[in-house]
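FW: tagging you since you asked about this chain on Friday. Here's the raw sequence from the shared folder, copied in full. Didn't touch anything.
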Amino acid sequence: MGEIQFNDQYQPTSSQVERVTGLSQFFIAYSFGLITNQKQAEIAQIIICVVIFTALAYILTGLTENKLPQPTQDLIQSRQPIGPIN
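HL: got it, structure written out here
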């Protein structure tokens, strides 16, 4: 059996870190009303709406996946072996 190797040495590049911290600072500034540029505020609103709707869709699909029909007792009993098990 092969073992799964995990890469614990992953280090994000500085541009990836800057991008994430820049986005979080942008959202914090928007939520506190510090963005005065109308275009940036519109972009932030669109991105926030997309994130919220994506999260809602993910939650709703997760809830409906648990509600799939379960096999009935007859189907479960029909899968049992007919003869004695040695």
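FW: The CA atoms of residues 16 and 22 lie 10 Å apart.
HL: agreed, and The chain has a mean pLDDT of 70.
FW: great, closing this out.
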